């Protein structure tokens, strides 16, 4: 990592400034450890010592907020091996210990809540559920064809999000994030490609967004007005005929009317992994600006100036972060992959010891191989820290692939693209 000072024009105070959210909670600075699916739960899907050890390594990293990876709300619907599941209070003590570790360095701690819908590898479930019986495209049958949820089952899933939110906040977590991006269940309801229902949960854009809004309302009722409730949302699915920016903007307006505390902007699905920065639909100009979805966030800010915004994906330099924050386009910078290799980089960026993260995409020039090496590289770094070791940035890609395959199997390694 470079230790040269950032350009004199960079004002780091925009990174170190606190942010008060609509619910009243104050974050100590503008850097966030974004959600990364850790794959470290015990076999019974409870959190354990490996997760605590990983987050203990990040607790003093300097971020003002840390968001967990996928925490599922139904143990019958696991998106990836090693997902934590919260259905009830059975793991309350473990959850409390996890929250305590995450908050030990002064950072706020939020839980990302999720349901995978149809994005469940066959190795985990042969009978996934979804808004409609439409299979995930372009995945060579690794995901089984889903069954359409009944109206009663949809209501049950809404209630599960609320229950999980209540349990984790009672355990000591400061807030929750509802995962509405990357092709998981909420995203499936929003997209006309995956939601072909003809009842009150589909047909029109207004009905397709009903599921997300019902989840937000149920979660808010469960946690109360003083607990931050956030949503992670695709700016677009980057698929022809899918969820596009115009419809996403309409959803954002509806979420703002519900009083959410933070919107995190992302994009892409398993079929088009824009969130990794490897999708060809991302323009070169977007990559040069570092943040993959900053333009959409700026559009949101123009229409909804009071809605707190976070962008994750692509930020590497303090100059790029300060520009995005200083221009008022966003309020928080999400950092994911950099923290798997340089776990202390946020603090170094904040206090001037560094002006950039050295983490860059691991490219081979072969798209499928790029996805493979990207995923295993960062995941194995997290697993090393969970085992009490330091990251190994120069570890050979083949060793990472081999370990991931040995742990999670072929289906997971082929499809685990979004967090």
Which key phrases capture this entry?
two-stranded antiparallel ribbon; disordered N terminus; about 425 residues; TIM Barrel; disordered C terminus; globular; alpha/beta; about 40% helix; single chain
Description:
The chain is of the alpha/beta class and 419 residues long. It has a single domain (13-361), classed as TIM Barrel, CATH 3.20.20. Helices cover 38% and strands 13% of the residues. Helix 8 (245-258) links the parallel strand 10 and strand 11. The longest helix has 20 residues, at 151-170. The chain starts with 12 loop residues before the first helix and ends with a helix. The relative contact order is 0.15. Mean pLDDT is 88; it is low at 1-5, 272-289 and 411-419.
**Gap between N and C termini:** 26 Å
Helix and strand run: HEEEHEEHEEEHEHHHEHEHHEHEHHHHH
Low-confidence segments: 1-5, 272-289, 411-419
Mean pLDDT: 88
CATH H-level homologous superfamily name: Aldolase class I
Domain count? 1
Number of helices: 16
Main sheet properties: 8 strands, parallel, barrel
CATH class placement: Alpha Beta
User: What would the CATH topology be?
Assistant: TIM Barrel
Strand order of the largest sheet: 3-4-6-9-10-11-12-13
What percent of residues adopt helix (DSSP H or I)?
25-40%
Quickly give the CATH architecture. Answer: Alpha-Beta Barrel
Based on Cα principal axes, name the global outline.
globular
Structural class by helix and strand composition: alpha/beta
Q: Write down the Rg.
A: 20 Å
| Fraction of residues in β-strands | 5-15%
Number of strands: 13
């Amino acid at each position: 990592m470079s230790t040269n000072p950032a350009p004199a024009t960079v004002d780091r105070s925009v990174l170190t400034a606190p942010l008060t959210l609509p619910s009243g909670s104050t974050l100590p600075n503008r850097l966030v450890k974004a959600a990364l699916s850790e794959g470290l739960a015990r076999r019974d899907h409870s959190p354990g010592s490996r997760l605590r050890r990983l987050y203990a390594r990040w607790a003093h990293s300097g971020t003002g907020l840390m968001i967990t990876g996928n925490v599922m709300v139904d143990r019958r619907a696991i998106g990836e091996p090693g997902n934590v599941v919260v259905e009830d209070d059975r793991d309350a003590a473990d959850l409390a210990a996890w929250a305590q570790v995450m908050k030990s360095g002064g950072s706020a701690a939020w839980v990302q809540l999720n349901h995978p819908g149809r994005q469940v590898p066959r190795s985990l479930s042969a009978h996934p559920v979804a808004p409609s019986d439409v299979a995930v495209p372009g995945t060579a049958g690794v995901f089984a064809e889903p069954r359409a949820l009944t109206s009663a089952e949809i209501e049950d899933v809404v209630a599960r999000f609320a229950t999980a939110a209540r349990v984790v906040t009672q355990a000591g977590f400061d807030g929750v994030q509802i995962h509405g991006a990357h092709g998981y269940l909420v995203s499936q309801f929003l997209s006309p490609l995956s939601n072909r229902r003809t009842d009150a949960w589909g047909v029109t854009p207004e009905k397709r967004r009903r599921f997300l809004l019902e989840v937000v309302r149920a979660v808010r009722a469960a946690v109360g007005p003083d607990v931050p409730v956030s949503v992670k949302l695709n700016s677009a699915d980057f698929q022809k005929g899918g969820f596009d920016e115009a419809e996403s903007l309409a959803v954002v307006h509806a979420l703002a009317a519900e009083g959410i505390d933070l919107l995190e902007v992302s994009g892409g699905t398993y079929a088009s992994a824009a969130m990794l920065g490897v999708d060809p639909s991302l323009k070169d100009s977007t990559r040069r600006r570092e943040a993959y979805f900053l333009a959409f966030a700026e559009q949101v800010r123009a229409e909804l100036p009071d809605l707190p915004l976070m962008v994750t994906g692509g930020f590497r330099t303090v100059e790029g972060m300060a520009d995005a924050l200083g221009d008022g386009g966003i309020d928080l910078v999400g950092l994911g992959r950099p923290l798997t290799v340089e776990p202390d980089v946020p603090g170094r960026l904040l206090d001037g010891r560094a002006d950039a993260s050295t983490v860059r995409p691991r490219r081979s020039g072969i798209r499928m191989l790029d996805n493979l090496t990207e995923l295993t590289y960062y995941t194995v770094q997290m697993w090393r820290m969970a085992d009490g070791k330091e990251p190994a940035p120069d570890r050979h890609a083949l060793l990472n692939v081999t370990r991931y395959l040995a742990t999670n199997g072929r289906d997971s390694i082929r499809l685990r693209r979004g967090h």
